[in-house]
Design a protein that fits this description.
mainly beta
């Protein structure tokens, strides 16, 4: 059974950092990319970052570029999202998800319908 479990969320002040972890199990970790999404109250789920398996490409939303870093530890079946210089607008529930193909077609990591398994989500709250 495929499972994705997020951890590392919490409440921080603006300017601080958090590192989210996504531990995957139930499949060959190297075969499929992982993406991070977030959803704030009253807003649609949006893609935050993704890491491809076919070329190691890392992709980011413009709103987080330069502040967030995605990385993968294949030995631990874990993908991390390091979030620095957090802003109140980063407040959301964050989800990791498994992409259905090894590569992001034309760099589109941000299409929710291209993911088949999702974690339960974890709250990140940034106070001003």
């Amino acid at each position: 059974e495929v499972q994705l479990v997020e951890s590392g969320g919490g409440l921080v002040q603006a300017g601080e950092s958090l590192r989210l972890s996504c531990v995957a199990s139930g499949y060959t970790f190297d075969d499929y990319p992982i993406g991070w999404f977030r959803q704030a109250p009253g807003k649609e789920r949006e893609g935050v970052s993704g890491i491809s398996r076919c070329d190691g490409l890392t992709l980011y939303a413009e709103s987080v570029k330069g502040r967030f870093t995605i990385s993968s530890d294949n030995a631990k079946n874990t993908v991390y999202l390091q979030m620095d210089s957090l802003k109140p607008e980063d407040t959301a529930i964050y989800y990791c998800a498994r992409h259905i193909e090894p590569c992001f077609y034309r760099g589109r990591y941000d299409l929710p319908n291209k993911y088949d398994y999702w974690g339960q989500g974890i709250q990140v709250t940034v106070s001003s």
